[in-house]
Design goal:
The complex is a heterodimer. By secondary structure, chain A is α/β, with parallel strands linked by helices. Chain A is about 30% helix and about 20% strand. Classes of the chains: A alpha/beta, B mainly beta.
């Protein structure tokens, strides 16, 4: 189809043909040539330089080659015949080393000089190697070309273990391939969620759980410090900054790519992050074009394949005299790991007027989130069911008005295009009587309607009477529709839900965490069909507490779900400074502690020190940056956190008791100290105060505390549920015991019952009013071993809680919570200095 | 172009779901947020209600809840959400090659209220 052309350089070209030299035999370079040939086959005499010694292949299909799902032959795009048929000179394995713009000539490594009229740079990108010691060892590979794949396959043949550094798209595909090839794979990822550029927390969690189920070890928040070597200089493993070591026979670095701009930069072209091009893919030199991953267009660099196709079209249009212009690309991502369906596109940062539509189906492992703004789709994340990914992406790219299909949008194209769903109630009304409403508990529509007709007028009543919607909650909408259809306006609002993110109340959430063995916040949100992607300021702290209480020693506290005071281990004040209260056991102190407190007050210029109602000293006006240093000084004098800031045990207030007081009946101070030693550090639904009075005169005010001990001649009266706050409530007498040990056991058991049964942010007083004192007594005393059992559970959980949080921080943990990023110091001469934190 | 933007360092200094602060001599302290879905925002670190340090609030979606009185502030617009009214200035922020840049004139131009 072409005019015959010679393969030898420079001779015999048709007079009209311009010489087009392409640097890069990859997907972008070849595609650009294809596009040009399709438009004007005789226009250029083409020479392509490739660094790899082979024809052009589909680089994005290297993952299936690694996984054994495809062979190299399957992913070749342009065979040798294509080059011959189109009279293209392919110079492979002889990379270009410089560009002489004056002479319009490129020079290859062999010394070969190739003159050009037009030059196209399509050098792609280079894998980014993190500069840690050992990065150059034998056995450290990247995942970029077929040679890398061959190296990985050679390692996999010997078996053993692999570490993949980087939990992005490429890293996970490499890990999947090596896992399928029989290696033990560990993925090390710096960020807390996998593929954080494409996925939100919820989808990232689902992906991690699935990869772990397949036997991969996924370490998130893991920072590589060093690659370890064997005696003979090969890779032995990886050491993380936290000291962990993972042994490995091969280490794959897949942390990212960088545009390969070296040639362009050396030639003096405009290069920022990538080679700067205009809308026609022309660089700062009009004779030189650039395309693909090496370019920067309107400030953006792309690492995905779809934008390359768009760029190549615009390039070919311009090069053949019919310029169209490239306007940037909206990208979408799919993970090529068989059996995992994952799709992400656009912007899911929300913003003003943006609304999230979330659908979760725990039973089928599905999470869908579509972000809508001004009646247009602006972003989508799909996990588990990506069938509608291309539909959402299409709506997004076209900017189509979706207001007409908004209600059904999240259910996908088939559903939304049906058109009959403007009224969801009508759709439910149309269901047959034997249609299954609740899949978890096998409840039909007829059974739900019958339950409603028998008097269940609220969602909660339906849940408790026929169990529909009582397990995972995914059918809540259907049950609510049935209530509306059956009762009209007579539907009763349900009990207060935990927050607006869920249809479940506190009690149901706690029960379901237990029944379904839920162990992480994103897991609770997925399994219980949260309607928001990552919860809110009400549910995150509640879930964090419930999980901490349910899985002591296993659940890892989530700092991001803590209120400021619990995150900073101090009390925030109205001016943004903090107050610091060290623990004084039972209200006792000594000269050493008092001296240390006095020194801290002077050293940090604390403007006020105050005696608190809980018998200790509160130091005011400490800046967040100074907190670790303050704590270090207090620790040095033997003091630990007083938890004056937490939903936790606060103080144990005491009177002096029989040791000094002429009325004292027991050693109330000593018992108070023992109780405080047992209970400090425990997290609770709300703050928790204890007092021990040595006689019924009750100088420690034990009858307005959450747990109060009043000593009498014959033993100890134990009181519960008192409150001196907004609504004063005197305690109820729980029981009387004879020994200190019994008093301690009942105290521990009562606290544990409260921890397990009360709702988050419910003090003991409203809790007891809600459930009744009899229920509390029954929980503690109906079975002879209940007190022992609950007390043992409390003490078990305490072994994980009684590390002083101040000591950790003083030693440098979570330093980022206390340090500024930097400080800006504007200088007069229009410059600004920036002082970085260490 | 680069000169108009202040490089404040790599993005990985701010963990998702948290914020960090940037004091400005003679100006208002700035809070830089990293949300759980990996967006970055910069706002003056003062709630429009009673000047609470927003950097210390719980971050959810693209909203921060002020630690003092639980006002919800949009990170994108700085506006108070729900029934509350007020607005905190935002600072234009740009990401480039894993680093964060703030618009210089907005950083040094925001004087403390």
């Amino acid at each position: 189809m072409n005019a015959p052309m010679s393969f030898s350089e420079g001779n015999g070209q048709p007079a009209m043909a311009e010489r087009l030299v392409v640097i890069g035999n990859g997907m972008a370079g070849c595609r650009a040539v294809e596009e040009i040939l399709a438009r004007d086959p005789g226009r250029f005499a083409v020479t392509i330089f490739g660094a790899e010694p082979r024809v052009n292949y589909n680089r994005i299909m290297l993952s299936p080659v690694l996984a054994g799902e495809k062979a190299f032959e399957d992913i070749v795009i342009n065979t040798a015949d294509w080059y011959a048929d189109n009279a293209i000179t392919l110079v492979s394995g002889d990379p270009v080393v410089s560009i002489d713009r004056q002479a319009q000539t490129v020079i290859a490594r062999s010394g070969r000089a190739e003159p050009y009229d037009r030059l196209l740079i399509a050098t792609g990108s280079d894998p980014f190697i993190i500069p840690v010691p050992g990065a150059q060892l034998e056995g450290v590979v990247t995942f970029r070309d077929l040679d890398d794949v061959d190296r990985m396959l050679a390692a996999a043949e010997k078996g053993g273990s692999a570490v993949v550094i980087g939990g992005g798209l490429l890293g996970l595909e490499a890990a999947h391939g090596l896992n399928l090839r029989g290696m033990d794979v560990t993925v090390i990822h710096l960020m807390p969620t996998l593929m954080e550029r494409q996925l939100d927390e919820a989808a990232g969690w689902l992906l991690k759980a699935e990869l772990e189920r397949r036997g991969q070890v996924i370490l998130t928040g893991a920072d590589t410090q060093e690659i370890l070597a064997t005696d003979d200089g090969k890779v032995a493993g990886v050491r993380l900054k936290d000291g962990r070591e993972i042994s490995a026979d091969i280490v794959v670095m897949a942390v990212g790519i960088r545009p390969a701009t070296g040639l362009a930069k050396a030639a003096g072209l405009d290069v920022e992050r990538g080679i700067v091009v205009d809308d026609h893919m022309i660089t700062s030199d009009p004779a030189i074009m650039a395309v693909g991953e090496c370019v920067q267009h309107r400030g953006a660099c792309y690492g995905l394949v779809a934008p390359l196709w768009d760029m190549c079209r615009a390039l070919a249009d311009a090069a053949t005299g019919t310029p169209s212009g490239y306007e940037g690309s909206v990208t979408s991502t799919k993970l090529k790991v068989s059996g995992i369906d994952l799709f992400s596109a656009g912007d899911f940062s929300g913003g003003d007027g943006a609304e999230d539509i979330v659908m979760r189906d725990a039973a089928r492992g599905i999470y869908k989130r579509v972000v809508v703004k001004e009646d247009r789709v602006v972003g989508a994340v799909l996990y588990g069911d990506t069938a509608d990914g291309s539909w959402y992406f299409d709506l997004l790219k076209k900017g189509e008005d979706i207001s007409a299909i908004r209600e059904a949008l999240i259910f996908g194209q088939a559903f939304a295009s049906g058109g009959a769903l403007a009224d969801p109630n009508a759709a439910v009304a149309a269901l047959s009587d034997d249609a299954e409403i609740c899949g978890c508990n096998g409840v039909s529509k007829a059974a739900v309607v019958a339950t409603i007709n028998q008097g269940a007028c609220s969602l909660d009543a339906v849940r408790s009477q026929c169990k529909a919607s009582a397990s995972c909650g995914s059918c809540t909408g259907l049950v609510e529709s049935l209530l509306a259809i059956t009762l009209g306006g007579a539907v009763q609002a349900g009990p207060k839900t935990l927050c607006k993110c869920t249809s479940f109340g506190h009690a149901d959430v706690r029960r379901l965490i237990r029944e379904k063995q839920l162990r992480a916040i994103p897991q609770v949100m997925q399994e219980l069909h949260w309607t928001t992607p990552d919860g809110c300021a009400s549910c995150r702290p509640a879930l964090n507490y419930y999980l901490l209480c349910e899985w002591p020693g296993e659940y890892e506290d989530d700092q991001r779900s803590r209120f400021v005071n619990e995150r900073m281990h101090a009390n925030i004040q109205k001016d943004g400074t903090y107050s610091v209260v060290p623990r004084m056991w039972g209200g006792l102190t000594n000269p050493r502690e008092l001296r240390a407190i006095a020194d801290v007050v002077e050293k940090f210029n604390a403007p006020m020190v105050k005696v608190t109602g809980g018998q200790r000293l509160d130091i005011f006006g400490i800046k967040k940056e100074d907190l670790p240093a303050v704590w270090a000084d207090l620790n040095a004098a033997g003091m630990v956190s007083g938890h004056a800031y937490g939903k936790s045990l606060r103080t144990v207030k005491t009177c002096v008791g029989s040791e000094w007081c002429r009325f004292g009946t027991q050693d109330s101070t000593g018992l108070g100290v023992k109780i405080e030693r047992m209970t400090w550090g425990s997290w609770m639904p709300h703050k928790f105060k204890i007092a021990v009075s040595g006689c019924p005169r009750n100088c420690a005010e034990a009858t307005i505390k959450d747990f109060g001990v009043v000593c009498v001649d014959s033993g100890y009266e134990l009181h519960v549920g008192g409150n001196g706050g907004i609504k004063v409530r005197a305690t109820d007498l729980l029981c009387k015991v004879e020994t200190e040990a019994e008093a301690m056991d009942v105290c521990a058991a009562f606290i544990q019952l409260y921890r397990e049964d009360a709702w988050y942010l419910e003090r003991t007083a409203p809790w007891i009013e809600r459930v009744g004192l009899d229920a509390v007594k029954a929980g503690l005393f109906d079975k002879p071993d209940s007190v022992k059992r609950l007390a043992a559970k409390f003490r078990y959980s305490q072994q994980f809680m009684q590390d002083d949080p101040w000591a950790e921080r003083a030693a440098g943990r979570h330093a980022e919570l206390h340090q500024h990023l930097a400080e800006v110091r504007p200088l007069p001469a229009h410059t600004t200095s920036l002082e970085f934190a260490k | 172009m680069i000169g108009d933007w202040l490089d404040i360092g790599p993005t990985d200094q701010i963990a998702p779901g948290t914020a960090r602060t940037l004091p400005v001599q003679g100006g208002a302290e700035i809070a830089i947020f990293h949300t759980l879905d990996h967006q970055f925002y910069a706002l003056v670190n003062q709630c429009p209600h009673k000047q609470g340090p927003l950097s210390q609030g719980i971050v959810h979606g693209n909203v921060v809840t002020c630690p003092l009185h639980s006002w919800n502030i949009s990170l994108k617009t700085g506006k108070a959400l729900g029934d509350d009214e007020g607005c905190v200035p935002t600072i234009p922020l740009r990401l480039d090659a894993g680093r964060l840049y703030l618009l210089r004139e907005a950083v040094v131009g925001k004087r403390a209220a």
